[in-house]
Amino acid sequence: MRNLLIFIVGAAALITLPHFLSFSQQEILVFLTINILLVSSYRLLTLTGEWSLGHVVIMGVGAYASALFSKELGLYVPVSILLGGIVAALLAVLLSFPLFRMKGFYFLIGSFAAGEIIRLLWKRFRDPFGGAKGIKGIDPMPDFSIGIYDFDFFEPISYYYLSAMIVAACLWILWRIERSPVGLTFHAVHWQDKLAEASGVNLRAYRTLAFAISSGFAGIAGALLAHYIGTINPNSFDVEVMVFVLTWAIVGGTGTFYGPILGCIVLTVLNEIVLRELGFEQMRPLIYGAIMILSILFMPKGLESVVQRIISRRAKT
Amino acid sequence: MDLLAQTGLNAVYAASYISLIAVGLVLIFGVMGVINFAHGELYMAGAYSVVLIYSDFQLPFMVAVAVGLLFVGCLGLLMERALFRPLKDNPLGGLVASIGFLMIMQALASMGFGVRMEHIPPVTQHVIEFSERVRLPLSRLYVIIAAVVLLTVLWVFLKKTRFGWALRAAAQDPEAAALQGISIKQTARIAMFIGAGLAGIAGALTAPLVSVNPHMGHSVIVTAFIVIIVGGVGSLEGAVIASVVYAIVHTFVTTFFDGVVADITGLSLMLLVLIVKPTGLFGSADRA
To answer: Is A155 found in the same domain as A279?
Structure first.
Protein backbone atom coordinates (compact mmCIF):
# COMPACT_ATOMS: atom_id res chain seq x y z
CA MET A 1 0.00 0.00 0.00
CA ARG A 2 2.79 2.40 0.93
CA ASN A 3 4.83 1.37 -2.11
CA LEU A 4 1.85 1.98 -4.38
CA LEU A 5 1.43 5.44 -2.91
CA ILE A 6 5.12 6.26 -3.46
CA PHE A 7 4.81 4.97 -7.02
CA ILE A 8 1.77 7.15 -7.79
CA VAL A 9 3.31 10.27 -6.25
CA GLY A 10 6.59 9.60 -8.08
CA ALA A 11 4.86 9.12 -11.43
CA ALA A 12 2.78 12.26 -10.93
CA ALA A 13 5.92 14.22 -10.07
CA LEU A 14 7.69 12.96 -13.21
CA ILE A 15 4.68 13.85 -15.39
CA THR A 16 4.26 17.38 -14.01
CA LEU A 17 8.01 18.09 -13.66
CA PRO A 18 8.67 19.46 -17.21
CA HIS A 19 5.85 22.01 -16.89
CA PHE A 20 7.86 23.85 -14.25
CA LEU A 21 10.98 24.05 -16.41
CA SER A 22 12.17 26.40 -19.14
CA PHE A 23 12.52 25.20 -22.74
CA SER A 24 16.26 24.54 -22.50
CA GLN A 25 15.80 22.76 -19.17
CA GLN A 26 13.16 20.56 -20.78
CA GLU A 27 15.70 19.64 -23.44
CA ILE A 28 18.23 18.77 -20.75
CA LEU A 29 15.56 16.62 -19.12
CA VAL A 30 15.23 14.60 -22.36
CA PHE A 31 19.01 14.07 -22.49
CA LEU A 32 19.02 13.15 -18.80
CA THR A 33 16.31 10.53 -19.38
CA ILE A 34 18.30 8.98 -22.24
CA ASN A 35 21.54 9.11 -20.23
CA ILE A 36 19.88 7.27 -17.34
CA LEU A 37 19.22 4.35 -19.68
CA LEU A 38 22.80 4.57 -20.96
CA VAL A 39 24.40 4.48 -17.53
CA SER A 40 22.03 1.77 -16.25
CA SER A 41 22.85 -0.44 -19.22
CA TYR A 42 26.52 0.19 -18.47
CA ARG A 43 26.01 -1.08 -14.94
CA LEU A 44 24.76 -4.42 -16.22
CA LEU A 45 28.15 -4.95 -17.86
CA THR A 46 30.02 -3.90 -14.73
CA LEU A 47 28.10 -6.59 -12.82
CA THR A 48 30.32 -9.16 -14.50
CA GLY A 49 33.36 -7.19 -13.39
CA GLU A 50 34.34 -5.79 -16.78
CA TRP A 51 34.71 -2.05 -17.38
CA SER A 52 34.39 -1.09 -21.00
CA LEU A 53 35.57 2.11 -22.66
CA GLY A 54 33.56 1.37 -25.79
CA HIS A 55 30.06 1.69 -24.40
CA VAL A 56 29.36 5.12 -25.89
CA VAL A 57 30.49 3.95 -29.32
CA ILE A 58 28.09 0.99 -29.00
CA MET A 59 25.39 3.54 -28.20
CA GLY A 60 26.47 5.29 -31.39
CA VAL A 61 26.07 2.02 -33.31
CA GLY A 62 22.41 2.00 -32.26
CA ALA A 63 22.07 5.65 -33.26
CA TYR A 64 23.67 5.16 -36.70
CA ALA A 65 21.73 1.96 -37.35
CA SER A 66 18.38 3.48 -36.43
CA ALA A 67 19.10 6.67 -38.39
CA LEU A 68 20.04 4.68 -41.50
CA PHE A 69 17.09 2.28 -41.19
CA SER A 70 14.61 5.14 -41.06
CA LYS A 71 16.37 7.33 -43.62
CA GLU A 72 17.53 4.84 -46.24
CA LEU A 73 14.94 2.10 -45.88
CA GLY A 74 12.07 4.32 -44.76
CA LEU A 75 11.23 2.18 -41.75
CA TYR A 76 8.73 3.42 -39.18
CA VAL A 77 10.78 5.22 -36.50
CA PRO A 78 9.76 3.14 -33.44
CA VAL A 79 10.65 -0.01 -35.38
CA SER A 80 14.02 1.41 -36.40
CA ILE A 81 14.76 2.36 -32.77
CA LEU A 82 14.16 -1.23 -31.73
CA LEU A 83 16.28 -2.48 -34.64
CA GLY A 84 19.02 -0.05 -33.58
CA GLY A 85 19.15 -1.79 -30.22
CA ILE A 86 19.24 -5.21 -31.87
CA VAL A 87 22.08 -4.20 -34.22
CA ALA A 88 24.09 -2.89 -31.24
CA ALA A 89 23.51 -6.17 -29.37
CA LEU A 90 24.53 -8.26 -32.40
CA LEU A 91 27.66 -6.20 -32.90
CA ALA A 92 28.49 -6.75 -29.23
CA VAL A 93 28.21 -10.50 -29.75
CA LEU A 94 30.60 -10.16 -32.69
CA LEU A 95 33.02 -8.01 -30.67
CA SER A 96 32.91 -10.44 -27.77
CA PHE A 97 34.99 -12.96 -29.73
CA PRO A 98 38.16 -10.88 -29.70
CA LEU A 99 37.40 -8.83 -26.57
CA PHE A 100 36.56 -11.62 -24.13
CA ARG A 101 39.91 -13.20 -24.67
CA MET A 102 40.96 -10.34 -22.38
CA LYS A 103 40.12 -9.43 -18.80
CA GLY A 104 40.35 -6.42 -16.54
CA PHE A 105 42.77 -3.79 -17.72
CA TYR A 106 43.31 -5.48 -21.08
CA PHE A 107 39.57 -5.57 -21.72
CA LEU A 108 39.41 -1.87 -20.88
CA ILE A 109 42.09 -1.02 -23.44
CA GLY A 110 40.78 -3.56 -25.96
CA SER A 111 37.25 -2.17 -25.81
CA PHE A 112 38.68 1.30 -26.26
CA ALA A 113 40.59 0.17 -29.36
CA ALA A 114 37.55 -1.58 -30.83
CA GLY A 115 35.39 1.49 -30.19
CA GLU A 116 37.89 3.85 -31.77
CA ILE A 117 38.15 1.60 -34.84
CA ILE A 118 34.35 1.70 -35.29
CA ARG A 119 34.38 5.47 -34.85
CA LEU A 120 37.16 5.90 -37.41
CA LEU A 121 35.26 3.68 -39.86
CA TRP A 122 32.29 6.06 -39.59
CA LYS A 123 34.68 8.88 -40.30
CA ARG A 124 36.36 7.13 -43.22
CA PHE A 125 33.32 5.89 -45.12
CA ARG A 126 31.26 8.77 -46.44
CA ASP A 127 28.78 6.23 -47.83
CA PRO A 128 26.63 5.35 -45.90
CA PHE A 129 27.92 6.92 -42.65
CA GLY A 130 28.38 10.48 -43.92
CA GLY A 131 32.08 10.77 -42.97
CA ALA A 132 33.19 13.31 -40.37
CA LYS A 133 30.02 15.37 -40.88
CA GLY A 134 27.85 12.42 -39.95
CA ILE A 135 24.18 11.98 -40.77
CA LYS A 136 21.91 14.99 -40.92
CA GLY A 137 18.16 15.31 -41.17
CA ILE A 138 17.32 12.09 -39.36
CA ASP A 139 13.55 11.49 -39.46
CA PRO A 140 11.92 12.70 -36.26
CA MET A 141 9.42 10.58 -34.42
CA PRO A 142 6.08 10.85 -36.25
CA ASP A 143 3.43 12.74 -34.25
CA PHE A 144 0.53 10.79 -32.87
CA SER A 145 -2.35 11.20 -30.48
CA ILE A 146 -3.56 8.93 -27.70
CA GLY A 147 -6.85 10.75 -27.11
CA ILE A 148 -6.01 12.56 -23.88
CA TYR A 149 -2.65 13.84 -25.09
CA ASP A 150 -1.36 14.90 -28.53
CA PHE A 151 2.29 13.99 -29.04
CA ASP A 152 3.99 16.73 -31.04
CA PHE A 153 7.65 15.85 -31.27
CA PHE A 154 8.87 19.34 -31.98
CA GLU A 155 8.13 19.91 -28.30
CA PRO A 156 10.70 18.52 -25.87
CA ILE A 157 7.89 17.73 -23.41
CA SER A 158 6.38 15.20 -25.79
CA TYR A 159 9.71 13.59 -26.46
CA TYR A 160 10.36 13.53 -22.73
CA TYR A 161 7.10 11.63 -22.12
CA LEU A 162 7.85 9.18 -24.91
CA SER A 163 11.48 8.56 -23.93
CA ALA A 164 10.57 8.40 -20.23
CA MET A 165 8.07 5.62 -21.00
CA ILE A 166 10.57 3.71 -23.14
CA VAL A 167 13.36 4.20 -20.59
CA ALA A 168 11.09 3.16 -17.71
CA ALA A 169 10.19 -0.03 -19.59
CA CYS A 170 13.87 -0.72 -20.32
CA LEU A 171 14.86 -0.07 -16.70
CA TRP A 172 12.16 -2.47 -15.54
CA ILE A 173 13.55 -5.16 -17.87
CA LEU A 174 17.10 -4.48 -16.66
CA TRP A 175 15.88 -4.71 -13.05
CA ARG A 176 14.10 -8.00 -13.72
CA ILE A 177 17.21 -9.40 -15.44
CA GLU A 178 19.37 -8.46 -12.47
CA ARG A 179 16.94 -10.13 -10.04
CA SER A 180 16.64 -13.29 -12.14
CA PRO A 181 18.92 -16.33 -11.83
CA VAL A 182 20.80 -14.97 -14.86
CA GLY A 183 21.55 -11.75 -12.99
CA LEU A 184 22.74 -13.67 -9.94
CA THR A 185 25.05 -15.62 -12.23
CA PHE A 186 26.49 -12.32 -13.48
CA HIS A 187 27.39 -11.51 -9.88
CA ALA A 188 28.94 -14.95 -9.49
CA VAL A 189 30.98 -14.46 -12.67
CA HIS A 190 32.44 -11.33 -11.13
CA TRP A 191 33.06 -12.30 -7.52
CA GLN A 192 33.47 -16.07 -7.67
CA ASP A 193 34.58 -16.84 -11.20
CA LYS A 194 36.59 -19.96 -10.29
CA LEU A 195 33.77 -21.37 -8.16
CA ALA A 196 31.16 -20.52 -10.79
CA GLU A 197 33.18 -22.21 -13.49
CA ALA A 198 33.66 -25.27 -11.32
CA SER A 199 29.88 -25.41 -10.81
CA GLY A 200 29.39 -25.66 -14.55
CA VAL A 201 28.72 -22.00 -15.40
CA ASN A 202 30.01 -21.08 -18.83
CA LEU A 203 31.81 -17.85 -17.92
CA ARG A 204 32.40 -16.77 -21.49
CA ALA A 205 28.74 -17.24 -22.44
CA TYR A 206 27.50 -15.21 -19.47
CA ARG A 207 30.02 -12.44 -20.09
CA THR A 208 28.88 -12.30 -23.72
CA LEU A 209 25.24 -12.30 -22.65
CA ALA A 210 25.80 -9.38 -20.26
CA PHE A 211 27.75 -7.51 -22.92
CA ALA A 212 25.04 -8.09 -25.54
CA ILE A 213 22.14 -7.06 -23.28
CA SER A 214 23.88 -3.94 -22.01
CA SER A 215 24.90 -3.02 -25.57
CA GLY A 216 21.34 -3.55 -26.81
CA PHE A 217 19.94 -1.08 -24.29
CA ALA A 218 22.77 1.34 -25.01
CA GLY A 219 21.80 1.07 -28.68
CA ILE A 220 18.19 1.95 -27.87
CA ALA A 221 19.44 4.95 -25.89
CA GLY A 222 21.52 6.01 -28.88
CA ALA A 223 18.59 5.62 -31.27
CA LEU A 224 16.37 7.71 -28.98
CA LEU A 225 19.03 10.40 -28.98
CA ALA A 226 19.50 10.31 -32.77
CA HIS A 227 15.78 10.80 -33.53
CA TYR A 228 15.60 13.63 -31.04
CA ILE A 229 18.55 15.78 -32.09
CA GLY A 230 18.24 14.77 -35.76
CA THR A 231 21.96 14.85 -36.52
CA ILE A 232 24.79 12.59 -35.41
CA ASN A 233 28.49 12.46 -36.24
CA PRO A 234 31.49 10.41 -35.07
CA ASN A 235 32.44 13.06 -32.51
CA SER A 236 29.07 12.76 -30.73
CA PHE A 237 30.28 9.41 -29.43
CA ASP A 238 33.93 10.06 -28.63
CA VAL A 239 35.86 9.14 -25.54
CA GLU A 240 34.98 12.39 -23.77
CA VAL A 241 31.34 11.29 -23.60
CA MET A 242 32.56 7.94 -22.32
CA VAL A 243 34.41 9.75 -19.54
CA PHE A 244 31.11 11.32 -18.47
CA VAL A 245 29.38 7.92 -18.35
CA LEU A 246 32.28 6.54 -16.32
CA THR A 247 32.05 9.51 -13.94
CA TRP A 248 28.32 9.07 -13.41
CA ALA A 249 28.78 5.39 -12.64
CA ILE A 250 31.70 5.97 -10.30
CA VAL A 251 30.36 9.01 -8.46
CA GLY A 252 27.02 7.23 -8.03
CA GLY A 253 28.53 3.85 -7.23
CA THR A 254 27.85 0.59 -9.05
CA GLY A 255 26.92 -1.55 -6.08
CA THR A 256 23.20 -0.92 -6.39
CA PHE A 257 20.73 -0.49 -9.24
CA TYR A 258 20.01 3.13 -8.33
CA GLY A 259 23.65 4.15 -7.76
CA PRO A 260 24.58 5.05 -11.37
CA ILE A 261 21.17 6.69 -11.92
CA LEU A 262 21.71 8.81 -8.81
CA GLY A 263 25.18 9.79 -10.02
CA CYS A 264 23.83 10.71 -13.45
CA ILE A 265 21.00 12.86 -12.04
CA VAL A 266 23.11 14.62 -9.41
CA LEU A 267 25.97 15.43 -11.76
CA THR A 268 23.69 16.53 -14.61
CA VAL A 269 21.71 18.83 -12.33
CA LEU A 270 24.95 20.19 -10.90
CA ASN A 271 26.47 20.55 -14.35
CA GLU A 272 23.57 22.03 -16.30
CA ILE A 273 21.54 23.92 -13.75
CA VAL A 274 24.04 25.04 -11.14
CA LEU A 275 27.19 25.61 -13.17
CA ARG A 276 25.52 26.92 -16.33
CA GLU A 277 23.22 29.27 -14.47
CA LEU A 278 26.11 30.56 -12.39
CA GLY A 279 28.09 31.19 -15.55
CA PHE A 280 31.05 28.90 -14.91
CA GLU A 281 30.89 27.74 -18.53
CA GLN A 282 34.65 27.54 -19.02
CA MET A 283 35.39 26.07 -15.63
CA ARG A 284 32.98 23.17 -15.99
CA PRO A 285 35.54 20.51 -17.00
CA LEU A 286 37.73 21.72 -14.15
CA ILE A 287 34.95 21.31 -11.60
CA TYR A 288 33.93 18.00 -13.12
CA GLY A 289 37.50 16.73 -12.89
CA ALA A 290 37.79 17.90 -9.30
CA ILE A 291 34.51 16.17 -8.38
CA MET A 292 35.80 12.98 -9.96
CA ILE A 293 39.05 13.07 -7.99
CA LEU A 294 37.42 14.07 -4.71
CA SER A 295 34.73 11.43 -4.94
CA ILE A 296 37.19 8.62 -5.72
CA LEU A 297 39.43 9.80 -2.87
CA PHE A 298 36.83 10.39 -0.17
CA MET A 299 33.77 8.45 -1.32
CA PRO A 300 35.14 5.37 -3.14
CA LYS A 301 31.82 3.53 -2.80
CA GLY A 302 29.88 6.37 -4.39
CA LEU A 303 26.81 8.38 -3.50
CA GLU A 304 24.83 5.20 -2.96
CA SER A 305 26.90 4.48 0.17
CA VAL A 306 25.69 7.79 1.62
CA VAL A 307 22.08 6.86 0.86
CA GLN A 308 22.57 3.42 2.40
CA ARG A 309 24.01 4.96 5.54
CA ILE A 310 21.01 7.28 5.91
CA ILE A 311 18.58 4.40 5.39
CA SER A 312 20.31 2.13 7.90
CA ARG A 313 20.48 4.93 10.47
CA ARG A 314 16.77 5.53 10.10
CA ALA A 315 16.09 1.80 10.44
CA LYS A 316 17.92 1.75 13.77
CA THR A 317 16.01 4.59 15.42
CA MET B 1 63.10 5.93 -53.79
CA ASP B 2 63.16 9.53 -52.63
CA LEU B 3 59.67 9.19 -51.22
CA LEU B 4 60.72 6.05 -49.36
CA ALA B 5 63.77 7.78 -47.84
CA GLN B 6 61.76 10.86 -46.88
CA THR B 7 59.03 8.75 -45.27
CA GLY B 8 61.74 6.80 -43.44
CA LEU B 9 63.15 10.03 -42.00
CA ASN B 10 59.68 11.10 -40.92
CA ALA B 11 59.24 7.73 -39.22
CA VAL B 12 62.51 8.11 -37.31
CA TYR B 13 61.40 11.52 -36.07
CA ALA B 14 57.98 10.17 -35.02
CA ALA B 15 59.56 7.15 -33.32
CA SER B 16 61.85 9.35 -31.24
CA TYR B 17 59.21 11.50 -29.58
CA ILE B 18 56.68 8.67 -29.27
CA SER B 19 59.26 6.52 -27.47
CA LEU B 20 59.99 9.32 -24.99
CA ILE B 21 56.30 9.48 -24.07
CA ALA B 22 55.74 5.72 -24.06
CA VAL B 23 58.81 4.97 -21.94
CA GLY B 24 57.59 7.45 -19.33
CA LEU B 25 54.18 5.82 -19.30
CA VAL B 26 55.68 2.35 -18.93
CA LEU B 27 57.97 3.51 -16.12
CA ILE B 28 55.01 4.93 -14.19
CA PHE B 29 52.98 1.78 -14.76
CA GLY B 30 55.86 -0.43 -13.69
CA VAL B 31 56.48 1.26 -10.35
CA MET B 32 53.05 2.71 -9.50
CA GLY B 33 50.84 0.03 -11.05
CA VAL B 34 48.50 2.61 -12.57
CA ILE B 35 47.85 3.55 -16.15
CA ASN B 36 48.26 7.29 -16.28
CA PHE B 37 45.49 8.56 -18.56
CA ALA B 38 46.73 12.09 -17.98
CA HIS B 39 50.08 11.35 -19.63
CA GLY B 40 49.03 13.15 -22.82
CA GLU B 41 48.25 16.22 -20.70
CA LEU B 42 51.74 16.09 -19.17
CA TYR B 43 53.04 16.25 -22.74
CA MET B 44 50.68 19.19 -23.35
CA ALA B 45 52.01 20.93 -20.22
CA GLY B 46 55.54 20.57 -21.57
CA ALA B 47 54.49 22.20 -24.84
CA TYR B 48 52.81 25.09 -23.02
CA SER B 49 55.96 25.66 -20.96
CA VAL B 50 57.65 26.46 -24.27
CA VAL B 51 54.76 28.72 -25.29
CA LEU B 52 55.15 30.68 -22.07
CA ILE B 53 58.94 30.79 -21.64
CA TYR B 54 60.14 30.79 -25.26
CA SER B 55 57.51 32.62 -27.29
CA ASP B 56 55.98 34.88 -24.61
CA PHE B 57 59.02 35.67 -22.42
CA GLN B 58 61.50 35.38 -25.34
CA LEU B 59 64.01 33.37 -23.32
CA PRO B 60 66.31 30.86 -25.08
CA PHE B 61 64.67 27.64 -26.27
CA MET B 62 66.92 25.43 -24.14
CA VAL B 63 65.83 27.30 -20.99
CA ALA B 64 62.21 26.68 -21.96
CA VAL B 65 62.87 22.96 -22.45
CA ALA B 66 64.61 22.72 -19.07
CA VAL B 67 61.74 24.53 -17.37
CA GLY B 68 59.30 22.20 -19.14
CA LEU B 69 61.17 19.15 -17.85
CA LEU B 70 61.26 20.44 -14.26
CA PHE B 71 57.69 21.76 -14.23
CA VAL B 72 56.16 18.60 -15.64
CA GLY B 73 58.35 16.44 -13.42
CA CYS B 74 56.94 18.33 -10.43
CA LEU B 75 53.42 17.80 -11.77
CA GLY B 76 54.28 14.09 -11.69
CA LEU B 77 55.33 14.40 -8.05
CA LEU B 78 52.06 16.17 -7.31
CA MET B 79 50.06 13.37 -8.94
CA GLU B 80 51.99 10.77 -6.98
CA ARG B 81 51.38 12.46 -3.65
CA ALA B 82 47.80 13.63 -4.16
CA LEU B 83 46.31 10.84 -6.27
CA PHE B 84 48.25 7.63 -6.73
CA ARG B 85 49.57 7.15 -3.20
CA PRO B 86 46.17 7.43 -1.44
CA LEU B 87 44.60 5.20 -4.11
CA LYS B 88 47.24 2.49 -4.05
CA ASP B 89 44.77 -0.25 -3.08
CA ASN B 90 42.06 0.78 -5.53
CA PRO B 91 42.89 -0.55 -9.02
CA LEU B 92 40.22 1.49 -10.80
CA GLY B 93 40.84 4.49 -8.57
CA GLY B 94 44.16 5.59 -10.04
CA LEU B 95 42.69 5.43 -13.52
CA VAL B 96 39.63 7.51 -12.62
CA ALA B 97 41.73 10.01 -10.69
CA SER B 98 44.07 10.43 -13.64
CA ILE B 99 41.08 11.08 -15.92
CA GLY B 100 39.95 13.74 -13.46
CA PHE B 101 43.45 15.22 -13.48
CA LEU B 102 43.36 15.21 -17.30
CA MET B 103 40.16 17.26 -17.34
CA ILE B 104 41.56 19.76 -14.84
CA MET B 105 44.75 20.18 -16.88
CA GLN B 106 42.80 20.73 -20.11
CA ALA B 107 40.53 23.27 -18.44
CA LEU B 108 43.48 25.13 -16.93
CA ALA B 109 45.24 25.25 -20.29
CA SER B 110 42.20 26.59 -22.11
CA MET B 111 41.55 29.14 -19.35
CA GLY B 112 45.16 30.29 -19.27
CA PHE B 113 45.99 30.27 -22.97
CA GLY B 114 42.67 30.01 -24.82
CA VAL B 115 41.50 27.06 -26.91
CA ARG B 116 43.04 28.30 -30.14
CA MET B 117 46.23 26.91 -31.59
CA GLU B 118 49.39 28.64 -30.35
CA HIS B 119 51.89 30.00 -32.82
CA ILE B 120 55.48 29.34 -31.78
CA PRO B 121 58.32 30.94 -33.76
CA PRO B 122 60.58 28.24 -35.24
CA VAL B 123 63.81 27.57 -33.36
CA THR B 124 65.80 27.16 -36.55
CA GLN B 125 64.87 27.41 -40.20
CA HIS B 126 67.86 25.36 -41.25
CA VAL B 127 67.16 22.25 -43.32
CA ILE B 128 69.57 19.45 -44.10
CA GLU B 129 69.15 18.45 -47.74
CA PHE B 130 70.22 14.95 -48.65
CA SER B 131 68.89 15.34 -52.15
CA GLU B 132 66.32 17.51 -53.84
CA ARG B 133 63.35 15.73 -52.35
CA VAL B 134 64.84 14.22 -49.21
CA ARG B 135 65.22 16.83 -46.50
CA LEU B 136 65.35 16.86 -42.73
CA PRO B 137 64.64 20.10 -40.84
CA LEU B 138 67.30 20.69 -38.21
CA SER B 139 64.64 21.12 -35.51
CA ARG B 140 63.48 17.55 -36.15
CA LEU B 141 67.07 16.32 -35.92
CA TYR B 142 67.30 17.95 -32.48
CA VAL B 143 64.30 15.92 -31.31
CA ILE B 144 65.87 12.71 -32.62
CA ILE B 145 69.23 13.44 -30.94
CA ALA B 146 67.54 14.42 -27.67
CA ALA B 147 65.50 11.21 -27.64
CA VAL B 148 68.53 9.01 -28.27
CA VAL B 149 70.60 10.79 -25.60
CA LEU B 150 67.83 10.81 -22.98
CA LEU B 151 66.89 7.17 -23.49
CA THR B 152 70.55 6.12 -23.33
CA VAL B 153 71.03 8.06 -20.10
CA LEU B 154 67.86 6.51 -18.67
CA TRP B 155 69.03 3.04 -19.69
CA VAL B 156 72.40 3.53 -17.99
CA PHE B 157 70.64 4.96 -14.91
CA LEU B 158 68.29 1.98 -14.63
CA LYS B 159 70.87 -0.73 -15.29
CA LYS B 160 74.03 0.59 -13.68
CA THR B 161 73.19 2.78 -10.68
CA ARG B 162 71.90 1.82 -7.24
CA PHE B 163 68.81 3.98 -7.78
CA GLY B 164 68.09 2.06 -10.95
CA TRP B 165 68.45 -1.25 -9.14
CA ALA B 166 66.08 -0.06 -6.43
CA LEU B 167 63.59 1.18 -9.00
CA ARG B 168 63.52 -2.11 -10.87
CA ALA B 169 63.28 -4.07 -7.65
CA ALA B 170 60.33 -1.98 -6.49
CA ALA B 171 58.65 -2.52 -9.83
CA GLN B 172 59.11 -6.29 -9.70
CA ASP B 173 58.15 -6.97 -6.10
CA PRO B 174 57.38 -4.00 -3.84
CA GLU B 175 57.19 -6.05 -0.65
CA ALA B 176 60.48 -7.84 -1.11
CA ALA B 177 62.10 -4.56 -2.11
CA ALA B 178 60.79 -2.87 1.02
CA LEU B 179 62.21 -5.71 3.15
CA GLN B 180 65.60 -5.08 1.57
CA GLY B 181 65.48 -1.53 2.87
CA ILE B 182 64.41 0.15 -0.37
CA SER B 183 62.08 3.05 0.25
CA ILE B 184 59.01 2.42 -1.90
CA LYS B 185 57.86 6.01 -1.55
CA GLN B 186 61.25 7.30 -2.64
CA THR B 187 61.35 5.08 -5.73
CA ALA B 188 57.76 6.00 -6.57
CA ARG B 189 58.71 9.67 -6.47
CA ILE B 190 61.75 9.12 -8.68
CA ALA B 191 59.74 7.09 -11.18
CA MET B 192 56.95 9.66 -11.34
CA PHE B 193 59.42 12.51 -11.77
CA ILE B 194 61.30 10.77 -14.57
CA GLY B 195 58.19 9.42 -16.28
CA ALA B 196 56.37 12.75 -16.22
CA GLY B 197 59.54 14.65 -17.06
CA LEU B 198 60.07 12.56 -20.20
CA ALA B 199 56.56 13.42 -21.37
CA GLY B 200 57.22 17.08 -20.54
CA ILE B 201 60.49 17.19 -22.47
CA ALA B 202 58.86 15.47 -25.45
CA GLY B 203 56.14 18.12 -25.41
CA ALA B 204 58.65 20.94 -25.05
CA LEU B 205 60.90 19.73 -27.87
CA THR B 206 58.10 19.12 -30.35
CA ALA B 207 56.12 22.27 -29.43
CA PRO B 208 57.45 24.35 -32.37
CA LEU B 209 56.72 21.47 -34.78
CA VAL B 210 53.14 20.51 -33.89
CA SER B 211 49.92 22.42 -33.29
CA VAL B 212 49.86 23.32 -29.60
CA ASN B 213 46.34 23.39 -28.18
CA PRO B 214 44.69 22.24 -24.93
CA HIS B 215 43.46 18.99 -26.53
CA MET B 216 46.76 17.95 -28.11
CA GLY B 217 47.22 15.22 -25.49
CA HIS B 218 44.37 13.10 -26.84
CA SER B 219 46.01 11.72 -29.98
CA VAL B 220 49.29 11.32 -28.11
CA ILE B 221 47.80 9.18 -25.35
CA VAL B 222 46.10 6.90 -27.88
CA THR B 223 49.42 6.43 -29.67
CA ALA B 224 51.22 5.79 -26.39
CA PHE B 225 48.64 3.17 -25.37
CA ILE B 226 49.05 1.35 -28.68
CA VAL B 227 52.82 1.39 -28.26
CA ILE B 228 52.91 0.12 -24.68
CA ILE B 229 50.40 -2.65 -25.43
CA VAL B 230 52.28 -3.77 -28.54
CA GLY B 231 55.59 -3.58 -26.70
CA GLY B 232 54.30 -5.35 -23.63
CA VAL B 233 53.09 -3.43 -20.60
CA GLY B 234 56.00 -2.93 -18.24
CA SER B 235 58.78 -3.50 -20.74
CA LEU B 236 60.94 -0.43 -21.42
CA GLU B 237 62.86 -2.01 -24.28
CA GLY B 238 59.58 -3.23 -25.74
CA ALA B 239 58.18 0.28 -25.62
CA VAL B 240 61.12 1.67 -27.58
CA ILE B 241 61.01 -1.08 -30.21
CA ALA B 242 57.21 -0.83 -30.49
CA SER B 243 57.54 2.96 -30.95
CA VAL B 244 59.81 2.39 -33.92
CA VAL B 245 57.50 -0.27 -35.40
CA TYR B 246 54.41 1.88 -34.87
CA ALA B 247 56.06 5.01 -36.28
CA ILE B 248 57.17 3.17 -39.42
CA VAL B 249 53.75 1.59 -39.99
CA HIS B 250 51.83 4.77 -39.23
CA THR B 251 54.05 7.07 -41.31
CA PHE B 252 54.05 4.79 -44.34
CA VAL B 253 50.30 4.14 -44.24
CA THR B 254 49.67 7.89 -43.85
CA THR B 255 51.88 8.61 -46.87
CA PHE B 256 50.43 5.95 -49.13
CA PHE B 257 46.78 6.00 -47.94
CA ASP B 258 45.58 8.62 -45.45
CA GLY B 259 45.70 9.53 -41.79
CA VAL B 260 42.44 7.86 -40.78
CA VAL B 261 43.46 4.55 -42.37
CA ALA B 262 46.78 4.83 -40.53
CA ASP B 263 44.96 5.31 -37.21
CA ILE B 264 42.74 2.31 -37.92
CA THR B 265 45.84 0.24 -38.80
CA GLY B 266 47.54 1.23 -35.55
CA LEU B 267 44.51 0.37 -33.42
CA SER B 268 44.02 -2.93 -35.27
CA LEU B 269 47.66 -3.77 -34.62
CA MET B 270 47.05 -3.23 -30.90
CA LEU B 271 43.85 -5.27 -30.94
CA LEU B 272 45.67 -8.06 -32.77
CA VAL B 273 48.46 -8.11 -30.18
CA LEU B 274 45.87 -8.10 -27.37
CA ILE B 275 44.14 -11.11 -28.93
CA VAL B 276 47.18 -13.15 -29.89
CA LYS B 277 49.63 -12.30 -27.11
CA PRO B 278 48.12 -10.02 -24.45
CA THR B 279 51.45 -9.67 -22.65
CA GLY B 280 52.80 -7.85 -25.70
CA LEU B 281 55.74 -8.70 -27.89
CA PHE B 282 58.32 -8.17 -25.15
CA GLY B 283 56.37 -8.47 -21.91
CA SER B 284 56.83 -11.37 -19.55
CA ALA B 285 53.81 -13.46 -18.63
CA ASP B 286 53.87 -12.75 -14.89
CA ARG B 287 53.57 -9.01 -15.38
CA ALA B 288 50.08 -9.27 -16.86
So the answer is: no
